[in-house]
Amino acid sequence: MIDWPEKGTHHDILLRQAEVSGDKPFVTMDGTTLSFADVARESATLAAGLEAIGVAKGSRVALMAGNRLEFIGIWFALSRLGAVLVPVNTAHRGEVLRHMLSISECSHMLVESGLLPQVAEVLADLPALATLVMLDDEAAQVGGEVRCLPFSALRTHGASPQPVRVLPSDPAMIMFTSGTTGPSKGALKPQNEAYYLAAMACRVMSYTAGDRLYICLPLFHGNAQLLGVLPALRAGAQVFLVQKFSASQFWPDVKRHGCTAANYVGSLIPILMKADPTPDDADNPLVKMMGAGAPAALYEAFETRFGVNLTEGYGMSEAGAPFQNIPGRRKTGTCGLLQADYDVMLVDDDGLPVPDGTPGELLMRPRKLHIMMLEYVGMPEKTIEAWRDLWFHTGDYLKRDADGFYVFVDRKKDAIRRRGENISSYETEQAVGRHEAVFQCAAVGVPSDVGEEEVMICVVAKPGHAIDPAELHAFCRGQMAGFMVPRFIRILDALPMTATQRPEKYRLRQEGVTPATWDARRAG
Which of the residues in the chain have pLDDT under 70? Predict the structure, then answer.
């Protein structure tokens, strides 16, 4: 049993667990298994290699890759150096990708070879980027002054990086938000926030060294990293990592590897429920799942059918996880109870507290140091706005019931939630607006048949132009990540507008998908 300090860093967890668990298997993927000691040695080797190419304490290093073992080694190598990991969604491209790499001022980037074309499109606009490292060890020419190295080059410098004092308060990671009212914001997170969240997840989920966690969500998101790999590491549990979620492979994988736990996002639950029931659905080793957004109507049915306990909570990139349904004290359809390390208020538009049962914007602040973000990088005005009145304004509407359970109501911000991804309507609109025939547009979320939402874009053509929905859809595929591409395209003569000339999106949501709305699925 490890006596864990109250505060710490990412690599503290790895090094202490490697001492205790040593050669015990930690992470398995595609038939390859690394022990706790293997990951510790690998992170030391990569830290020495990254240091040799100029990565130092405070350096910001982008990592654009899908799930792979190298991701974990790089993550902990950067933590050892006190450098800042900037995980990038592999689907991003164009202006969104340029913005994220530019505002985070990344000096180095590690990228899969298959994603290099997306990066090459924006390299000319990234003066701070000095080095690209190709994870697949393939030779590449990117032009300009950016040097390009194979991943193997990081393994030629031994395994002894210079000692660096890394504090729990030091920056560790930049997680990008969905950019609901403007460009995506990069939440700069301290080392201790992840350390704290790992401890919280272990406590709430009762993880032990005997657990086996199935991780199918992307490592470039906080769910898989901070509520999956890191808690498993702290508990001395084993991780089974796959490239991505597959409805047909989920249960066979869980059974084959004897997995006892997994994480979910809201859309995963209805997708698994859509499969035809079988008599042995509950004949599996999975006993617990942690996540958020499970549809209330499917919550208990899912648990009964598959014999799994769902632990539903609420969290966000900037602010940790203030609410959890604690085993023994939970309520279906809620985010759970307030955790002891946070203060919260629900307020109306004038900043006044609302009574129980009335929706209000969630304001929160921590009772412990360094368990929430430090700032929005490169956006001091957004940081000040978010922390006005010494409360963090989440932009989400919740309500509290008479028993103290918090219920998510809606987003005050204008985000769209699709298949576990937060999509910026602003960035979607910016991309669509670059089409030569589009005069005005508004992106909204509409209900999906598999939970969460689908993206609908409502467009008005420029005078003298006509919009072909199929052609606009094809244009969108070249402008944005696949999960952002609108499924529905609705062509209007004019958008409904407020007195201040802003689209009345609530009306577009209420009207929803009309008979005249173009549907990419039907067209395909």
Answer: 178-182, 413, 498-502, 524
